[in-house]
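#random but structural
TW: two for the price of one
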Amino acid sequence: MAKRFRKVKPTVRDGTIALRDHLLSVAELARHRYGDNLSRAGVEALLEDREIVRYPVTLVFDDTPLQMGEYGFPEPVGCRPQDGFRLYLHPHYENREDVLALLVVYQLVRINYGDVASH
């Protein structure tokens, strides 16, 4: 006997839950691979890991493109996310390994998920 399937239309809530679940699974993977206290070298390794960070990211310690009060900003390198990003961070944080990973990971949500993550 053939099973009948009804058509299901995903809702915005379904999308939100799926995004959250994916984000959490990626965060758990990153934590498993790189631990809790990343050094600068650990941050660089994390940025190269395409299972964690979808697109190429280069850290740039320069406050020129930052707005007043901003600590960091991911700028697309080209027209497509696959072209990569420059993650500008305020130079104040260049030698602050105690907070560098947190600042970078916070911006990775925008890099990995784009505008979808801001809703």
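TW: number two ↓
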Amino acid sequence: MNVLLQEGYLCIQAPLSFLLIGRVLSPFHLFIEMYGDEYCHYLEEGDLVVVSAPEGGEIGQAMILLELIRKYHAPLVVLPKGHPGSKRLTMVVSAGDHIEINCSIQRGTHPEQHLLCGSEDLAGIVLKRSEMGVDITGGDQMSITSLDRMIIPSLS
């Protein structure tokens, strides 16, 4: 299914979890920081930034996290596998032209941007950028809602 998406967000909801999707509005380099290494992932206009909340949470928090990447180009930090902090990550982010939701990976430990930890309810969903939005495949028990973009004012 192809869903129109411009500057706002799409929220895919399952009974206990959600995904928040936004499109990259202008190209930038996303830096991915790992223990002892760093790499750079180029994002083009129209690529996707996706926040996964496997146990649910506040949509406002997900919007802020998405905008930290999309607008402010904050780097992503990837934890080593087995890191105890992984259990405290309530939301995780991935960015690229396509993203697959997987429930069998540990949160925050995968630098590969095509994989994103999600709930069992949303596992198997594949999100692909399209010319005017997002192509969504997979997923049974979900609803999709369009949301307006969060505007973050500047002091100047």
